[in-house]
């Protein structure tokens, strides 16, 4: 709170002061000290007068209106009076001879009560100058008193008596108290039922300890309230509100009690406001505030919320403490006196005076100070000191004006500060003033004076300097006015609104309203204004087009209007009263065509806040303290943080942005919400406000391609009505769209819209007016719709109207003729309809008319049309309904419907024409009847059997089975019973006639488990073990199946053993496995079986390691017996199986397979004449000759011959020498014996050196037939075509066996061979024409204990 002034006088120093504010107005402050004078100051601290007294002032008081100050002093019997209006003092002789001690003016009249030190009383009536002396009212000094609103006077005296007297001085009530009374006050105690007797309670402090309550209506039951000792003495108390008392205590406590009988004695509020002491309290009813002083500070509370501290004023220079506290009646000023003789006055409430110009504010910040600020543009505040306390303020771009009554002072706001320009007097008291850059307009006594502010600086014409409105001839009073940059606008009591254009110095617009116009509020540009009329209704008026729009939900308590100053929100304004702010939006360009005002929402206005400026949803308000406070309107809550809000709040914010046309903010909200409905709502709002570009953005965002394309097509349209029509159509407001189209430059668009919407009635009406040539085409479309809805009468009429008889529209006319034909038939004019349909080229029309006639049971005409339209199935069907079989027979070659053929067949069968019936049944695909006719009537079982076999007809098979059963052909009967799924009947038949083998062969794999079990049990009973075992296996009974297989006698093919192995393999049962192994090993019958069965058993059980060991044994036996191919195949199959199962291949198996394969390759190479390769393989075989015991001599002989042919003389000699051993010599073929002996006798040790190739693992060069690398000690993969080791750069794999081969050699081999060397599978289907660059493959060889494996770094391996 701002300190206004401080009063200090030398004569006052060190003593307490007595002071009184002028009542009601508060313009004067009377102060007295120990200097025998009363000094009178104005509210700004200026001394106005002084009253000299013969002694110190005893008491002083102002009358109820503040016109007269009365003072009494020591050593004087006179009453000193000072007139506030004339500033003249006067004296009144009291006539009392004893010293006066008390003085008080009445609250309601002009009565002055004066008490004396001896208890006498004087009542003086100022109006009549009548004095009423009352002697002996009290026996001792009267010390305190109070007037009531009923003019009762309560007095307290040192005689411990309290009296209540009327205005004549007659005692009405009196009571005694226990100690000296003080602080007497009148009030009303709080009761349940308010009494109408006025202030009926007298309260008085007794002995500074208790509060005594004396009810005049109940004098016998006074109430005395005592308080806690720690509070100290009662310093002061005040009544307020509904019977509440606030009490201040000397120890700094501040207590509130209620006088209601149920609450009395209870403290409602208590605070220790001051640490050491409290000296005074005061209450301002107008401010609703309470203040207490003590120590060196003042604390102010709000009476509505006492717990909250409203303000604290610290007076650090008052070290001796504070004394007395007092408010002016209006609550503007608070005075506090101190113990050291100073008086401080603080501003607690200012008149709310302010004005705006654009975003510039001017507000009264002190009684004689105006502050000009522009926070929006960041200007520094300017303080203007004014000469008088103003009643009005006006601010412009360059000036500020303040005024009081009929006078105004003008100041220039320059860069160098504030400069006073002039003051001006008007012809009456100024009610309001507005200024712009050059002119000021003042409203006074129903007139407005428009004048220049700085006329001396402008070379203007004299008549443009000032003008008085209205003119002399205008018999009206101006009630309100406004001044914009270009216009003076005013409203009169006759309802006229005048716009005066200052530039041209003439009226440019006039609007006449029905009732008087009270207030006017133009927007910053002056193109729109809001006015409030005498009925308190609000309207938006646009002078540009003279249009008026009522403001909806306009409260009758509205005090003013503010327009939004943010350029984007041009159409937004607020209306405010004391409690609330209402936000309105003026929507100008919408698809509705006409503008309108909508209420966007309301915002609660804090107490005593006056709105001054609205900018971007932020409302700047002036408060009682002279400061400004900013409030965000609830309709602009989206300006705060959106992301911290909940989903419902964000949805509400989106609605606000759309109301305010803040589409950019709405876009951001939609991005946060991420909800399709929110985007759709934004899109609809953009369409409503004709924001086409923004709507395109929105619909592109949501992926509405159709809407985006439609808007792109219309976005360049300049005709507002046409554009609005399109947008209204997009929002499904078709009637509005039609009105807009018709008002546009392209009215035909309305017709096109109605046609597209199939609103045919509207389209025809529009076509008559806009495009008569379109009527036939619209009629046709309308007729189609009417036909669809069943309105055939109107459809026929419109089809007939649709005829153009123009060759250009032949297709259109044909469609109309077709419609006429259909409608004629439906209307019963069958002849016309049929004739039209026959003449018409359309097949579809004939079908449609035929269907209609068929529904009408006009079968002959329907069939005729079907036949003409080549719908033979339909025609035949209708002819059948007519029993016209002759016609059906004619159409039968063209008929495709089985149903019709079936009907025809039944008719022919009934006539006994069985061949034709059989053919018709066959055409109808009714095979059962075909079979029946062949068997029952045509005696042709061969054809019946053929049909059953071809069609697999179940019912047909049953018929044939019954036929064969009648012939006792049980085998055939069983076959067809199985085919017809009659397995039980077939089984019984087979059982009865010993045909079970036939049944078992026929049933195959299509039977159920129960069928298989039945067959197995039958064979078990017949001791046919193989068949019994087979069917027990099929039904999953592996134990019984194995039992029967093992009982079978041994045969050449040993099928039973094979089946037993399959059984054990499926069962995976250890007991069954052991049982079969015992059988194979001969432990059950002493006859060991061939080892190959054991091998197959292990394979069936997937025991691959055991199978591998068995395979090696088998291969060894085969090899010993000379069956090298068999041994090779056994090892190869086992090798590939182990590879598939990813099981390590035994080295013995790999070695044996390699040696056997080398032996097989010899024949291939020798056959192809490649003796060197054959010799190399024979050398490898001969080095392992012990593995070929049956053919040692032939192999060695072959080795000698091939080595000799290949030039490997030394190898030939070594093998020849081996043959010369005694055990081999006599076994040599006589054909070669002599040559070999000669070779041994004359040895030739020359040898063709073997080529070397790199190791595929380590690239070590080694002989190409060597399979063990000396460098890396790896067993090397070998080529299946040559037997040589593999080389990385010449690698391929066989597509049949996946074994590696040298690509170049394999390709040469396949030129003469057709089978895989290792697997004997054909490879002729694989192309050998591979490109040379495909040979360049990079291979990565990974060695492991399991063997070798190959991985490709790319996909260019040539697979053959």
Automatic annotation (TrEMBL):
Domain IF140/IFT172/WDR19 TPR: from-to ranges: 663-934
Domain WDR19 WD40 repeat residue range list: 361-636
Major localization class: other
Residue ranges of every copy of the WDR19 first beta-propeller domain listed in the record: 18-341
Pfam families membership: Beta-prop_WDR19_1st (PF23389), Beta-prop_WDR19_2nd (PF15911), TPR_IF140-IFT172 (PF24762), Zf_IFT144_1st (PF23146)
Gene3D superfamilies membership: 1.25.40.470, YVTN repeat-like/Quinoprotein amine dehydrogenase
Subunit structure comment from the entry: Component of the IFT complex A (IFT-A) complex. IFT-A complex is divided into a core subcomplex composed of IFT122:IFT140:WDR19 which is associated with TULP3 and a peripheral subcomplex composed of IFT43:WDR35:TTC21B. Interacts (via C-terminal region) with IFT122 (via C-terminal region). Interacts with BBS1. Interacts with TTC25.
Function description: As component of the IFT complex A (IFT-A), a complex required for retrograde ciliary transport and entry into cilia of G protein-coupled receptors (GPCRs), it is involved in cilia function and/or assembly. Essential for functional IFT-A assembly and ciliary entry of GPCRs. Associates with the BBSome complex to mediate ciliary transport.
Protein name according to UniProt: WD repeat-containing protein 19
Organism: Acipenser oxyrinchus oxyrinchus
């Amino acid at each position: 709170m701002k300190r206004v002034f401080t009063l200090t006088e030398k004569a006052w120093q060190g003593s307490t002061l007595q002071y009184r504010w002028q009542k009601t107005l508060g313009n004067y402050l009377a102060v007295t000290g120990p200097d025998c004078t009363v000094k009178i100051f104005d509210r700004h601290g200026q001394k106005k007068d002084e009253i000299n007294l013969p002694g110190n002032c005893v008491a002083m008081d102002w009358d109820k209106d503040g016109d007269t100050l009365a003072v009494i002093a020591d050593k004087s019997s006179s009453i000193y009076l000072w007139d506030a209006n004339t500033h003249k003092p006067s004296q009144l002789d009291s006539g009392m001879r004893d010293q006066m001690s008390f003085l008080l003016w009445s609250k309601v009249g002009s009565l002055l009560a004066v008490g004396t030190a001896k208890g006498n009383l004087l009542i003086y009536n100022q109006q009549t100058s009548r004095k009423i002396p009352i002697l002996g009212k009290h026996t001792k000094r009267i010390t305190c008193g109070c007037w009531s609103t009923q003019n009762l006077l309560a007095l307290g005296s040192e005689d411990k008596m309290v009296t209540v007297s009327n205005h004549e001085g007659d005692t009405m009530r009196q009571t005694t108290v226990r100690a000296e009374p003080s602080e007497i006050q009148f009030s009303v105690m709080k009761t349940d039922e308010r009494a109408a007797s006025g202030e009926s309670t007298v309260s008085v402090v007794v002995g500074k300890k208790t509060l005594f309550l004396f009810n005049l209506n109940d004098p016998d039951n006074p109430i005395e309230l005592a308080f806690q000792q720690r509070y100290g003495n009662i310093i002061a108390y005040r009544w307020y509100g509904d019977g509440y008392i606030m009490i201040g205590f000397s120890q700094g406590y501040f207590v509130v009690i209620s006088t209601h009988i149920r609450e009395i004695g209870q403290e409602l509020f208590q605070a220790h406001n001051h640490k050491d002491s409290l000296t005074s309290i005061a209450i301002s009813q107008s401010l609703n505030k309470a203040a207490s002083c003590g120590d060196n500070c003042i604390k102010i509370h709000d009476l509505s919320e006492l717990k909250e501290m409203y303000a604290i004023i610290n007076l650090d220079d008052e070290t001796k403490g504070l004394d007395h506290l007092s408010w002016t009646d209006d609550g503007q000023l608070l005075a506090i006196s101190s113990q050291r003789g100073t008086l401080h006055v603080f501003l607690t409430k200012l008149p709310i005076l302010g004005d705006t110009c654009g975003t510039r504010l001017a507000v009264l910040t002190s009684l004689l100070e105006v502050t000009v600020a522009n926070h929006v543009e960041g200007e520094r505040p300017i303080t203007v000191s004014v000469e008088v306390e103003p009643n009005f303020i006006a601010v412009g771009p360059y000036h500020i004006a303040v005024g009081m009554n009929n006078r105004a002072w003008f100041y220039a706001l320059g860069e160098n500060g504030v400069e006073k320009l002039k003051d001006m007097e008007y012809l009456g008291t100024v009610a309001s003033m507005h200024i712009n850059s050059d002119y000021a307009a003042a409203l006074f006594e129903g007139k407005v004076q428009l004048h220049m502010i700085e006329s001396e600086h402008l070379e203007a014409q004299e008549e443009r300097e000032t003008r008085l409105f209205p003119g002399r001839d205008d018999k009206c009073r101006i009630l309100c006015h406004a001044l914009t940059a270009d216009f003076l606008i005013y409203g009169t009591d006759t309802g006229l609104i005048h716009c005066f254009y200052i530039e041209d110095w003439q009226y440019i617009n006039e609007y006449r309203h029905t009732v008087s116009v009270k207030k006017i509020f133009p927007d910053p540009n002056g193109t729109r204004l809001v006015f409030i009329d005498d009925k308190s209704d609000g309207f938006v008026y646009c002078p540009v087009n003279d249009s008026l729009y009522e403001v909806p939900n306009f409260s009758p308590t509205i005090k003013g209007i503010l327009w939004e100053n943010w350029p984007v929100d041009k159409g937004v304004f607020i209306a405010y009263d004391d409690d609330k702010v209402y936000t309105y939006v003026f929507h100008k360009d919408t698809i509705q065509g006409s503008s309108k005002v909508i209420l966007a929402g309301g915002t609660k206005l804090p107490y005593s806040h006056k709105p001054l400026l609205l900018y971007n949803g932020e409302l700047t308000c002036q408060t009682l303290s002279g400061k400004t406070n900013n409030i965000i309107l609830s309709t602009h809550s989206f300006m705060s943080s959106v992301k911290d809000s909940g989903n419902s709040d964000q949805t509400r914010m989106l609605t606000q942005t759309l109301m305010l046309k803040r589409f950019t903010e709405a876009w951001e909200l939609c991005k946060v919400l991420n909800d399709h409905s929110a985007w759709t709502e934004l899109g609809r709002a953009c369409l409503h406000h004709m924001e086409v570009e923004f709507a395109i953005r929105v619909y592109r965002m949501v992926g509405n391609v159709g809407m985006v394309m439609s808007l792109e097509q219309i976005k360049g349209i300049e005709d507002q009505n046409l554009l609005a029509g399109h947008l209204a159509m997009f929002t499904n407001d078709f009637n509005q769209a039609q009105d807009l189209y018709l008002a546009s430059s392209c009215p035909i668009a309305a017709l096109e819209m109605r046609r597209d919407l199939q609103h045919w009635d509207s389209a025809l009406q529009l076509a008559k007016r806009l495009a008569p040539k379109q009527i036939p085409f619209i009629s046709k479309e309308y007729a189609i719709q009417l036909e669809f809805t069943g309105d055939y009468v109107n459809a026929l009429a419109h089809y007939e109207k649709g005829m153009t008889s123009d060759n250009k529209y032949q297709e259109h006319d044909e469609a109309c003729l077709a419609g006429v034909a259909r409608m004629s038939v439906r209307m019963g004019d069958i002849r016309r309809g049929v004739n039209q349909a026959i003449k018409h080229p359309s097949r579809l029309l004939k079908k449609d008319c035929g269907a209609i006639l068929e529904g009408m049971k006009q079968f002959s005409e329907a069939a005729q049309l079907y036949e003409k339209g080549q719908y033979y199935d339909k025609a035949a069907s209708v002819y059948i309904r007519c029993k016209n079989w002759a016609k059906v027979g004619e159409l039968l070659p063209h008929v495709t419907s089985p149903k019709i053929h079936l009907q025809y067949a039944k008719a022919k069968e009934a006539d006994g024409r069985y061949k034709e019936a059989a053919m018709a049944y066959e055409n109808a695909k009714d095979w059962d009847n075909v079979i029946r006719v062949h068997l029952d009537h045509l005696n042709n079982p061969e054809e019946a059997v053929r049909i059953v076999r071809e069609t697999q007809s179940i019912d047909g098979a049953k018929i044939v089975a019954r036929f064969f059963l009648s012939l006792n052909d049980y085998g055939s009967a069983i076959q067809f019973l199985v085919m017809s799924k009659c397995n039980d009947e077939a089984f019984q038949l087979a059982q009865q006639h010993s045909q079970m083998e036939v049944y078992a062969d026929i049933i195959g794999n299509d039977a159920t488990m129960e069928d298989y079990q039945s067959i197995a049990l039958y064979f078990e009973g017949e001791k046919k073990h193989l068949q019994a075992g087979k069917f027990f296996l099929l039904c999953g009974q592996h134990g019984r199946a194995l039992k029967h297989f093992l009982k079978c006698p041994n045969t050449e093919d040993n099928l039973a053993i094979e089946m037993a192995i399959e059984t054990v393999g499926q069962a995976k049962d250890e007991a069954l496995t052991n049982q079969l192994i015992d059988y194979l090993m001969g432990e059950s019958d002493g006859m060991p079986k061939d080892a190959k069965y054991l091998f197959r058993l292990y394979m069936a059980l997937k025991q691959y390691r055991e199978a591998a060991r068995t395979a090696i044994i088998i291969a060894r036996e085969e090899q010993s017996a000379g069956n090298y191919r068999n041994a090779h195949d056994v090892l190869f199959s086992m090798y590939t199986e182990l590879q598939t199962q990813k099981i390590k291949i035994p080295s013995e198996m790999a070695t044996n397979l390699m040696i056997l394969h080398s032996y097989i390759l010899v024949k291939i190479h020798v056959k192809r004449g490649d003796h060197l390769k054959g010799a190399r393989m024979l050398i490898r075989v001969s080095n392992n000759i012990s593995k070929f015991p049956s053919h040692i001599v032939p192999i060695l002989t072959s080795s000698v011959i091939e080595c000799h042919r290949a030039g490997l003389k030394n190898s030939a000699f070594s093998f020849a020498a081996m043959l010369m051993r005694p055990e081999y010599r006599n076994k040599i073929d006589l054909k070669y014996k002599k040559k070999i002996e000669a070779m041994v006798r004359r040895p030739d040790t020359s040898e063709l050196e073997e080529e070397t190739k790199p190791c595929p693992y380590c690239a070590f060069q080694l002989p190409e037939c060597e399979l063990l690398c000396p460098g890396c000690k790896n067993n090397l993969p070998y080529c299946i075509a040559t037997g040589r080791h593999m080389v990385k750069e010449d690698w391929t794999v066989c597509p049949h066996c996946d074994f590696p081969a040298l690509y170049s050699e394999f390709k040469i081999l396949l030129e003469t061979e057709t089978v895989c060397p290792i697997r004997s599978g054909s490879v002729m289907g694989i192309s050998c024409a591979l490109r040379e660059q495909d040979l360049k493959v990079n291979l990565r060889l990974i060695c492991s204990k399991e063997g070798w494996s190959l991985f490709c770094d790319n996909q260019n391996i040539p697979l053959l």
